[in-house]
Design brief:
The protein is α+β, with helices and mostly antiparallel strands and 294 residues long. It has two domains: 6-118 and 287-292, Aminopeptidase, CATH 3.40.630.30; 119-264, Aminopeptidase (3-Layer(aba) Sandwich). It has helices spanning 13-20, 32-37, 39-42, 76-83, 95-105, 124-129, 136-148, 161-175, 181-195, 242-254, 270-277, and strands spanning 6-7, 44-49, 52-57, 63-65, 88-94, 109-113, 119-123, 151-155, 204-210, 213-222, 227-235, 260-262, 283-285, 287-292. The strands form two sheets. A seven-stranded mixed sheet has the order 1-2-3-4-5-14-6. Strands 8-9-10-11-12-7-13 form a seven-stranded mixed sheet, sandwiched between helices. The chain is globular, with a radius of gyration of 20 Å.
Length: 294
């Protein structure tokens, strides 16, 4: 059978989210907030077949992602041959689905770890407390920020969107976003999410203020009952320790009901990997490239 794809639209959120909730191994890149944020950049499309959503990105070239829905109930020995009789390669396949395919399809599917797509998961309690030698440098930077600046953390809502975008613009001017494709795309992704606040229920957002001036903000959402994902986090660099402060403040004040904080993947960038590893992840949400041989 052939899949009929449609460009991602905000109207798909309800149907998509209901199937995402059935996935037994959720990762942050499959949340609707994430695919909506990056849709102008990656040109997401969705097709519905066999009680599953089949996502793919089409920019710069078509790449299929893992299907979204009730993996445990799907008859994979029948579904994949019918949908992709000639075979297909899937990227960012969460570990549980990779295991299912390996168990049920055997040698007909080849699995390869995609280390650059593994998501970093941290203990919320540890990142708030910053106890012990493992967090010594982070704790010192946080102390410097608190000693140098009288700051206040505020939870934000729809009425604060323009203020967040104003600070984001300052951050972009400092980073020369217009000259760097990745940062330019991220800036647009942040704007897409914030401007659709009312259509994306569950967003969590908070900011640090120094003398009523926003110096950092974070945006996230619940991913499971015990895990929050931090999609965006920005701070003004002239405030030393600001990233340690917003990281702690956001988790302590806006995410205290969660056990785990997901800070997404490193995309294979060494500097990003070092930064994420420096916060001592508890574990990873692993993902794989799966080649279904047809």
């Amino acid at each position: 059978m052939s899949l009929t794809f449609s460009p991602l639209s905000i109207d798909m959120r309800g149907d998509y989210t209901s199937l995402f909730e059935k996935c037994t191994d959720k990762t942050s890149d499959y949340t609707f907030v994430n695919i909506w944020a990056w849709s102008d950049e990656r040109k997401y499309e969705l097709a519905f077949a066999k009680d599953l959503f089949w996502p793919r990105v089409t920019n710069p070239a078509p790449v299929y992602w893992a299907p979204v829905g009730d993996w445990e109930a799907a008859d994979w020995e029948r579904v994949l041959p019918e949908v992709f009789p000639q075979g297909m390669t899937f990227d960012r396949v969460p570990e549980r689905l990779a295991q299912l395919w390996g168990e049920r399809l055997g040698s007909r599917v080849a699995l390869e770890e995609q280390r650059s797509e593994w998501e970093y998961v941290y203990s919320v309690e540890e990142l708030v407390a910053l106890r012990g030698n493992r967090f010594h440098k982070k704790k010192n930077l946080l102390k410097q920020f608190k000693r140098e600046y009288v700051s206040e953390y505020k939870s934000l809502g729809r009425d604060d969107v323009e203020d967040i975008l104003e600070m984001q613009q300052l951050w972009c001017e400092w980073k020369s976003c217009d000259d760097i494709p990745g940062l330019r795309a991220e800036n647009h992704a942040i704007s897409r999410v914030l401007k659709k606040w009312d259509c994306l229920p569950g967003l969590l957002c908070g900011a640090l203020y120094v003398k009523d001036y926003m110096v950092a903000y974070a945006v996230g959402e619940p991913m499971t009952d015990d895990m929050v994902v931090v999609h965006f986090e920005k701070g003004l660099a002239e405030y030393k320790g600001v990233y340690q402060a917003i990281n702690q403040g956001f988790l302590e004040n806006s995410c205290s009901g969660f056990k785990w904080a997901n800070r997404e993947q490193d995309m294979g960038e060494e500097g990003v990997r070092q930064a994420k590893e420096s916060y001592n992840p508890s574990h990873f949400l692993k993902k794989y490239r799966a080649v279904w041989k047809g």
